[in-house]
Automatic annotation (TrEMBL):
This is Nuclear transport factor 2 family protein. InterPro entries: NTF2-like_dom_sf, SnoaL-like. Residues 5-123 form the SnoaL-like domain. Gene3D superfamilies: 3.10.450.50. The lineage of its organism: Bacteria, Bacillati, Actinomycetota, Actinomycetes, Mycobacteriales. It holds the Pfam family SnoaL_4. It comes from Nocardia aurantiaca.
Length: 133
């Protein structure tokens, strides 16, 4: 299965847009990134699973200043599953107000909708220690 170069570019921009919207607090624009019924899995952080774009927005608003100052997304891999669904892996780096940083892997299911590509499922996996051979 393959997708067009234009679709790949749109998916890369979609993943980047989440960080930009989060960093400026434009959570009301999450409709540009997530499906209405998006599942956001924060189990690895002890926060469980947030279901629905509005619930995700509400959680971000509730965090307030505890949100990272900067979300940086890189190393994006797009693996088509069907003509309208892809699985993506991306690395995330968060910069916090106290100067600490955190590294995660985003495991996403991205679907083609009438409005364009949107994330329908995201699992956030923190990287807490280096590999030890």
């Amino acid at each position: 299965m393959s997708i067009s170069t234009a679709d790949r570019l749109a998916i890369h921009e979609l993943l980047a847009l989440h960080g930009h919207l989060s960093d400026i607090g434009a959570f009301e624009r999450f409709g540009e990134v997530f499906t209405d019924d998006a599942v956001y899995d924060l189990t690895a952080y002890g926060a469980g699973v947030v279901t629905g774009r509005d619930a995700l927005r509400d959680m971000a608003l509730q965090l307030g200043d505890a949100n990272p100052l900067g979300h940086h997304v890189s190393n994006i891999i797009v693996s088509p599953a069907t003509a309208d669904t892809v699985e993506t892996l991306a690395k995330g780096l968060a910069v916090n107000a106290d100067g600490t940083t955190g590294s995660v892997t985003y495991e996403d299911t991205v679907v083609r909708t009438a409005a364009g590509w949107r994330i329908s499922h995201r699992r956030v996996v923190p990287r807490r220690k280096p590999l030890t051979p």
